[in-house]
Amino acid sequence: MGVTNSNKELSTMQIDCGGSFKIKLSLTASPDITENPTDIVLLLDRSGSMAGSPLANLKNGAKKFIDIIDEATDGSQDGQIGLGSRIGIVSFADTAVQDTQLITSVAALKGAVDALSADGLTNHEDAFAKGLALFDMTSTNAKVMIMFTDGVTTAGGNPNTVATAAKAQGVILYSIGLSGNGGIDEQALRDWASDPDSAYVAITPDDAELEDLFEDLARNIAKPGATGVVITDTVSPCFRITSLSSPTKGTASMIDARTVEWKIDELGTSGSEDATFEFTVEHIGPCSGTVEVNESITYRDCEGNTVTFPSPEIEIDCGVELCSEGCPEPIEGSVEGCSDTVEFDAGDICMQSLGRIVELSVTLRNVCPNKRVALAVLLHEVDAYGDEHKRGLKTMTVPAHTRQGCRDVTVRCIRFVLPEDLDVSGSDTALCNERKFRARFIAHYIDNDFDCDGDC
After folding, report:
1. Closest CA to 264 of 278, 243, 280, 247
2. Tens-place pLDDT, residues 300-329
3. Is 322-326+352-445 a domain of CATH 2.60.40.3930?
4. CA dist., res. 186 & res. 152, Å (int)
5. 3-class SS of residue 74
């Protein structure tokens, strides 16, 4: 798996009502070769037709290939292929030679490549046989052979027999052809290579392109940790996104007020690589207490990596809530058996006239701990001329809270009963008129540390 770590963190674990906090997404990816060590054998054509610039460009391409594998395995070009991967060199003309075994020394591998000289015929069969012999078939390492040639077979037996046997033993086989020097059997390259041809066969008429071709091949074998990454994060309806920071890698945009999308073209192509992205969200809505931040978060990439993110929770402190008046007690009854109806005595309910119930709530700001509050509510009804008519007065004691620091205290369910016969709206209709009210609140601490000594 190319993605080695994923995380979602909050800048704080607690906020007040309407508060804001930051969400940080992070992702780490490494080339696939770091998780899956690979043995690679380069089969390099040094026949006479390679003399001059073709051999020079082949050497540059092969050495570039070695450098890329070196960096991909441990994150730096430190001269040693790391984390269990190895490379071996086999060159061929009339016959094939194992120029190195499967080794990790970059200097030794490059030395073997630099020592190649062009002369002789082209024996593909022996090249495959000597390359296959380098592998330890009991090893759990992935096994890759890369055949490079610029001509048709002019010596030895049928190379297809050995290539087929190698693939049957789990070896992945790439074919690279240079067609500019006297022709090449393109069909043979396709027959030797693993399927599909589009992934494992490359042919060029220009030896100047060999360095780029070997570079692309090395990156393909190392496999980046993740490409085409898309992360879509939707926060809970309790929050909305207010701002985005620039990601350290890729781009980010808001899809809507609760959804952000983070895109990364590629991550972990040459070594382990981190990417982070932060955005700010604000608390909205009535939710309080312990709230899960995520509604959903999804991940996808071109490699099909399976990635999950944690679902953090945050504590939302909306102050202390008190209910000044409870709801009336319900009257219970039941219908037994197959009866369609039931009759029972609901007790005495006094109804003098039609009317309304106004239910008020009020928030007392910054009430300090261990102090009771005296609260009074005065309700007036306003007639069509703007005059006020008294409709009720309620007083109550708000109990002291014991939380650390001052807190907002919300008092809910302060109810006033307003019969219709008190309606002063001036409407001609008897029911469902618009009635207007004004409420006034008076509050002060009951408890204090003032001591009157009688001198005033």
Report:
1. 247
2. 998 888 898 988 999 998 876 666 666 667
3. yes
4. 9
5. helix
Q: In this structure, are residues 355 and 445 in contact, taking their beta carbons and an 8 Å threshold?
A: no
User: Is-same-fold flag (8-27+230-317; 33-222)?
Assistant: no
Does the structural domain 8-27+230-317 have CATH classification 2.60.40?
Answer: yes
> How many CA atoms, within 13 angstroms, populate the side-chain half-sphere of residue 256?
6
Global pTM? 0.55
On whether the CB atoms of residues 224 and 2 are closer than 8 A, the answer is yes
Distance CA 68, CA 102 (A): 17
Per-domain residue ranges for the chain?
8-27+230-317, 33-222, 322-326+352-445
Q: Which residues pair with 363 in a beta bridge?
A: 410
What are the tens digits of pLDDT across the range 147-189?
999 989 999 999 999 999 999 999 999 999 998 666 788 999 9
Instruction: Report, in this order, helix, strand and coil percent for the chain, each rounded to 5.
Output: 20, 40, 40
Nearest 5°: CA angle at 411, between 407 and 417?
170
Tokens of 249: 């890698």
